[in-house]
Amino acid sequence: MLADTVNVLVLVVEACGAIVIIIGALWTFARFVWVGLRERNAAACSRIRVSLGRFLALGLEFQLASDILRTAVAPGFRELGQLASSRPSGRR
Length: 92
Fold this sequence. Notes:
Layout: H1 2-38, H2 42-72, H3 77-86
Helix pairs in contact: 1-2
């Protein structure tokens, strides 16, 4: 039951991270086009790159959170050992 709930949460958190990255990329692209038409200097592009970096960092933090959730319900060595010992070896 808990594992199923966490798996749903993992999907939701991963989707949130992907949405943040997509929105950030679209927003940054729109700003790049807008600023590129009005201003043509490196300082303006630098601010835009920093903005994209913030969106990417936030999106990746969501992805990291989903990995942590997934790891929290991952089987331990004991469970993995029991699973390995119960499987047939394929040899007779």
